[in-house]
Design a protein that fits this description.
Length: 321
């Protein structure tokens, strides 16, 4: 029988043990439906396919890891909160985002808090959920997307550098060199990789169904955050009213969800969710929050290794970075 509980699952029904596995990152990754996953996510996702029931009014925030998930969660939470205008000039004092981490406020489908899918079932509609799953893994049995999906993507070199830092921080005693990590990344071997396939699936869906899939880029959002917040609210069916725009609510949301505000809201040593048994420090989700930081870590030659493969893989798709 299916156990929905992450913790007490017998190893015989654990799909991850039967999958091809490869070492290099902080733990060996397994190849599941053409993507490299941490074994515990592969196990949960396999069970999810029997248990998770999407709803027509779900909003799913999707991303490749390290591409702005935390930021998008904060923005979507802020604009869909019933009382978004209530905070008015007081945004800085008592908004839930200032005391609870965006990663807690918007649960991952594949990492429900405490590993219990019943928790997702129990959430009232409309649900705000998130995932790192590629589209083909999220809705394996259908080509039509029932829910609304917002995808955030990021320039691959910056995403890679962010991944590399994260990987070296999350597991004590593990470290990987930048060159070694780069070689794995350009082979498509990284958590939830190949990176480009992940982007392409959502990109194509957004081209085919723009009313269902909103495709955002981290860099564009950084350049014009207010415009993107307005766009996001409209897409999510909760457009800002003229009054709200007049009162500067979109600007307040941008300020509330900014890197400085959110990263300043935690102290070292604050922890976030049990991630399949792993406890992460809240601060690991906030490093630098800058566009183009890759140049501070990689040579041009290293950068072009990523550019070459990404260009080749995205050729003809219309998606460019
Ligand atoms: P860097 O490592 O380049 O700083 P994710 O949330 O998908 O794990 O992505 C993490 C990246 O987003 C990190 O990038 C992190 O610093 C950045 N980030 C987190 N919160 C942010 C915010 N509010 N605004 C902009 N960037 C943010």
């Amino acid at each position: 029988s299916e156990s929905e509980n992450h913790g007490n699952q017998s190893s015989s029904d654990d799909v991850s043990q039967q999958l091809p596995s490869r070492e290099g990152w902080s733990e060996p990754l397994v190849l599941y439906k053409n993507y490299w996953l941490r074994p515990r996510f592969a196990s949960t996702i396999a069970r999810l396919h029997n248990n998770f029931k999407p709803r027509h009014d779900d909003t799913i925030l999707a991303s490749n890891p390290k591409c702005g998930t935390t930021w998008l969660k904060a923005l979507a939470f802020a604009v869909t909160t019933q009382s978004r205008s209530r905070y008015g000039n007081d945004l800085a004092t008592d908004h839930p985002l200032l005391s609870r981490h965006p990663q807690e406020l918007v649960p991952f489908i594949e990492v429900p808090l405490d590993g219990d899918l019943a928790q997702l079932e129990a959430l009232p509609s409309p649900r705000l959920l998130s995932t790192h799953m590629p589209l083909s893994m999220l809705f394996p049995d259908t080509t039509t997307i029932a829910s609304r999906v917002v995808y955030v993507c990021r320039e691959p070199k910056d995403a890679f550098v962010s991944r590399w830092h994260f990987e070296n921080r999350i597991v004590k005693g593990y470290s990987v060199g930048l060159e070694a990590a780069l070689d794995m990344f350009v082979e498509g071997f990284s958590p939830y990789g190949p990176f480009w396939d992940h982007c392409l699936e959502y990109w194509r869906a957004s081209v085919a169904s723009p009313d269902r899939v909103l495709f955002l880029k981290y860099e564009d959002m950084m350049a014009e955050p207010v415009m993107h917040v307005v766009k996001l609210a409209a897409f999510l069916g909760v457009p800002f009213t003229a009054e709200e725009e007049e009162a500067g609510v979109p600007e307040q949301v941008v300020g509330l969800c900014s890197f400085d505000t959110l990263s300043g809201a935690y102290r070292t040593g604050d922890f976030v969710r049990r991630n399949g048994g792993v406890v992460l420090e809240k601060s690991v989700f906030f490093r630098k929050g800058k566009v183009g930081d890759w140049v501070n870590h990689m040579t041009q030659d290293m950068g072009s290794k990523i550019d070459r493969v990404v260009e080749e893989k995205l050729k003809g798709s219309g998606l460019v970075f």
